[in-house]
C-alpha cells in the first residue's frame, strides 16, 4: 500500500492518450449540419494532465502520437498547456491519432470517436521504462490505455515500476466498449488493474461492468477497498457519489449547472479530485472539488480548454459554499 501523502508533491506522471477533438461551431450545431469546427486537445489522459496543470500542479504524459500533422497538433497543444511530453513518442506507418467529433449539446448529443489503428496503442514497455518514477508523486492512468497491445502490457509494466518506486497508483476506469475485443476481456483486465491500484474512480456503470453485474457496482467498489485500495469513488451522475475508504463511506451530491454538453466531466473530476488530495484536503472536500470542476466543464465548450484554473475553481466553490452538496 503506497503512502498517499506523497501526492503532496503535486507532480504526476500520466499514462494514456492525447488526441484531437472537433466541435461543430457554433455550439448547438449538429455534426451533419456543420460547416465549421473548433479544434482542441482531446484524449482522457491529456485532459487530466491539463486539468492538473491549470490547478497548479505538474503533469507529464507517457504515450505515442502519430508522426503527422494531427500528432504534431497534439504535441503543440500539450506545450501550450504546459503538460510535459518528454515521454511522448511519435510513431509512423499506419498508426493514426485518435479523433473525436463531439457536439456541444445535451439533447440528442452525438459523439463520433475514431480509434482505428490508434497511435497511442503503440506504446511499448520501453516507453514506460524510460521514466524516472522516483521524481513523481503518483502515477495516473485511464482504462483506455489497457484496451489493446502492446499498450496494455506496457501500462502494467509501468504499474510495476511505479509501485517499486513507492508511487500511489490512481486509476480512472474510463470504459469505452468500442476499443475492446470483448466485454469479457475488458472486465478481466480492468479487475486486474483495479486490484493493483490505490485510488479507483469510475461511474456506476463502469464498476458494475467490472463486477459482471450492473446491479453490483457498489459492491465491487467496496470489494476493491476491502482488498487493499485506499479510496474508491463510485460516481452516480446526478445522484452524486459514494466514496469508500477503509474508514467508512462518504456520500456527496453534485453542483447544479447549465450544462452545454455531457463530455469532459470525468476528466475534470479527476483533475479536481487529485489536485485536492495533493493539497491535503479531506477526501470529502477533494471529491467536492472534483464535482465542482466537473460542473464547470460541462457548462463550457471543449474539454481541455474548458478545464478551470485555480482561481476560477476557487471562485466557483466560494459562490456555492452555502449549498455544497451533502
Write up this protein.
The chain has 326 residues and is α/β, with parallel strands linked by helices. The chain has a single domain, classed as UDP-N-acetylmuramoyl-L-alanine:D-glutamate ligase (3-Layer(aba) Sandwich), CATH 3.40.1190.20. Helices cover 35% and strands 22% of the residues. It contains ten helices and 13 strands. It has helices at 44-54, 69-81, 125-129, 151-164, 183-196, 204-211, 217-226, 265-278, 283-297, 310-319, and strands at residues 11-15, 19-25, 36-42, 58-66, 84-91, 99-102, 111-114, 138-142, 169-172, 199-203, 231-235, 241-245, 248-252. It has a nine-stranded mixed β-sheet, with helices on both faces. It has a four-stranded mixed β-sheet with strand order 3-2-6-7. The two termini are 30 Å apart. The mean pLDDT is 95.
Record the SSE blueprint.
Blueprint: E1 11-15, E2 19-25, E3 36-42, H1 44-54, E4 58-66, H2 69-81, E5 84-91, E6 99-102, E7 111-114, H3 125-129, E8 138-142, H4 151-164, E9 169-172, H5 183-196, E10 199-203, H6 204-211, H7 217-226, E11 231-235, E12 241-245, E13 248-252, H8 265-278, H9 283-297, H10 310-319
Parallel strand pairs: 1-4, 1-8, 2-6, 4-5, 8-9, 9-10, 10-11
Antiparallel strand pairs: 2-3, 6-7, 11-12, 12-13
Short description:
This protein is 35% helix and 22% strand. The chain is α/β, with parallel strands linked by helices and 326 residues long.
